[in-house]
Amino acid sequence: MKILLLGSGAREHALARALARDPQTTELVVAPGNPGTAAIATNLNIDPCVPEEVVALATQMGADLVVVGPEAPLVAGVADAVRDAGIPCFGPGAEAARLEGSKAFAKEVMAAAGVPTAEAAVCTTEAELAAALDRFGSPYVVKEDGLAAGKGVVVTDEYPVALAHGRACLSRGGGRVVVEDYLDGPEASLFCVCDGATVRPLAPAQDFKRLLDEDAGPNTGGMGAYSPLSWAPADLAEQVVREVAQPVVDEMARRGTSFIGLLYCGLALTGRGLRVVEFNVRFGDPETQAVLARLTSSLPELLHAAATSALAEVPEPTWSDQCAVDVVIAAPGYPGTVTTGGAISGIEAAEELDDVHVLHAGTGTTERGELVSTGGRVLSVVALGPTVEDARARAYEAVERIELEGAHYRTDIARTSSETKRTAVTCS
Ligand code: GLY
Known about the structure:
By secondary structure, the chain is of the alpha+beta class. The protein is built from 15 helices and 22 strands. Helices cover 31% and strands 25% of the residues.
């Protein structure tokens, strides 16, 4: 199978790794990719958000499958263009991608499909914003309506902070902000592979979105993740498919905008039952790095089946008994103004540890071939182990072997004692 994978983060490096190691993959091109994907695939430098460029490359290489990593190309209609060109594509069309692109749209679909979620108000004026903040009260949950790279949510006990964020959201883009009820309870991410009709869940994971230990500091794109979740109900995946993913997939089909791709269900396991915090329409980052480290069945077969409406014909995914922990190393300044260009060393030493691999995100190479940082989240360090504690100890041992001046990371990723304390306030 010839596969074109779009994107350049650690999520795409994890996807590329799982695609490249499968014998069904005969050619793998990553566009634009990163230095990590260059080592296992061919990187080609196109703009993944320009449908014509993606279609031209997919056609030229005779791709059997295009896999879209990030949300921006999906919202830009890249999957529609690829399918229109007759090439199977794993990723929803622009209309279905609104499940992530607009929080208000997602709420509307959930209401129509009877999916449990936080009560919410969509506000377009300051008066509506103030009324919604009064109605829902503290802690205030204020979400930018459109895409915000994981940084569009403020959860705060302070009314002036909530109001200021809401006003800022109103002044941007679509001029809409969503205010919603606060959900307490541990959070979990469940990825559902969908072919427009059939849904196949992957293994649940948990993400650590706040910058600092103990879930302090601002939201980020995600500072680490682990899988599986020993504390979650054993039937969590089945329950999410039954109560969330299948009803949404059916509702999208009913609307004539079938959902083909990855429906990321961000969940709160509250005292009143399961609630959806958010949907994304692509693999999550950094959860994918942990989830795919445990996948033992064929990823190309699964994604191709989803892209060709044949998911019911392939076996359920299978998983290693090992646990996976992923720790993100971020550049100085992240998630604010980032210092780039720092020399990175120690990756080989980290990978000398058993069951450790390092995934690239914000990295590049200089003309002299030196590896340097180029973005906020620089590397994902992934370790497997027989228990979460073993995997976590190994991941941190590996992290300590990597050098990047001023880099920072959380020290409590997957720490068991913090699992049940963590709540769903850290949504994107
Ligand atoms: N892990 C959160 C996200 O991918 O948006």
